[in-house]
Amino acid sequence: MGNIGGRSNGCITCLRRHVKCGKFHVILQIPDVPSNHWTDEGEPTCAKCYSSGLLCEGYRGLPVTFDPHVEKINQHNNTQGPTSGQEDPEADEENGMVNHNPNVHAESSSRNASHPVSNGIARPIKRPSRGRPRKVSQSTRRASNVSARPTLVPFELSLSAFQEPICVTFLVQNFLGHLDTGRTSLLPAWDVNHVSGTARDSVNALALAFFGKAHHQQYIVVQGAECYGKALLKLRDDLDDHNAMWSSSVLLSSILLARYELVASTGSAGWIQHAGGVERLFEARGPSRHQTVEERHIFEAARPIIVIKAITDYKRTFLDQPAWLTLPWAQDPGQKSSMNHLIDIFCVIPGLLEDSKALHSPTSFVWDFTTPTSPATDPSMTRHDPRLVALRKRIQSCYIKLQKWKEVWDETYPSAVQSVNLSYFPPSELKFPIEIFEYAITFPNFLQANEYQLYNTVIFFLSSLMLSVPPSPDDLNAAPSVSDLLGQRWDAANNICRAVPYDLMFEKHGCGGAYLLLFPLLTNLRLFGADSPEGRWIKQVLTGIRNKWGLEGERKYMAI
Q: Which domain of life does the UniProt lineage start with (predicted)?
């Protein structure tokens, strides 16, 4: 049977909800008649309504059809005649019409219990749809309005009760599950299913904001802001409590709220304020308070946040002090990962930037990465100035440590970095300019990719610092040449970009790759320039990260 053109086959409920109707279809088995001539029954209820827990309001009309076999069957059955209390089937069948309302058949069947196949009709069974009937009479349309419907429990399934667990799971799988500290997990510190108090509200705030931004659900972002307000009030009370202020819950809340600002707010002031609060909180605790497994894991996660904030301010951080580089791991030195040894070097960068800025005239300290050397030093200074000599030695010492770290890393992972074509990666909306960077690179796992990205970021800063503080004639033999430093800086910037497909194109990396790319890409943007082909591509990548995950890095990390 064909459908009537221009007319919807859906039930009234699905039509009102503007969703595709899913019908239950049944067929009448007629004895002595080939199966391809069995007749359609109507739709007692809608599968879509049934699965949604809604009360189906039925269809606009009762389906009817002409069937040449019905009259033959009825003539055979009419020889017995209708029994008492039965309706005469010939009343509607004299013109060869059959009512296909299953409720009517159900009532007829119950009244004819002694005749299970009365009128040649057996119990209907389900089968796939063959379409709706061609004709619907006015009388049957009126009858459909009063026909009995199956009894359903009238309720609507609401996801509000499951919203926070869903958002938290999404957060862990796509954000917190990919860490920048050399571990596959920060558990138990990140065991968000078992946190309580201030940390619970902080987790919910970040989870709702992250889920809402990633799925463009503004009302969920608003709910996250409400949780954020509650978490701030509780955190303030905890900081006023001498006992609670030292708890791991307060530490975890401070990091989560800083990441909330990275996701939810549109300006940099909130992120900088929270990152500064994280720095002051950890500094007040002292290095010896981070020696338990849980507190050390939280401390390891906080260090990159503190360092990036310090770099944007050109201010030294307490993290470059020897006690902070050793005491948190004093009870178990073997637990300090390769990534954390690299972060130790990263922690020194802000102090070097601060001292370098102090040796230049205030108006000239604008990093010009396009020239062989960065800003000119104060004219009154000479290469033998004690301050310049001390800074040069510190930069070179840090540079040597980084090269030793890289040698160990290369020996441990000899095949960690592989050059590949773009076809190696799964299809993605990300457009990688192979004509600019020549090839992409891939890694055995996400951790090694993260270590390689951070290494290139550190070598980028150290080579720039060494160019800004030229070596004395006595140091020329020990220090890299200007051409070597320029080449290292460009190589580092290009390698950061070549790793972008690996970080972003694999769904298993979630938001972790995007989060860890923000700072290196923004650093590269200053080198390439916003109007260069590389710079325009980087801005497209940052826009894609913002649209997909809600991370607005260019508004958070101030220009280097």
A: Eukaryota
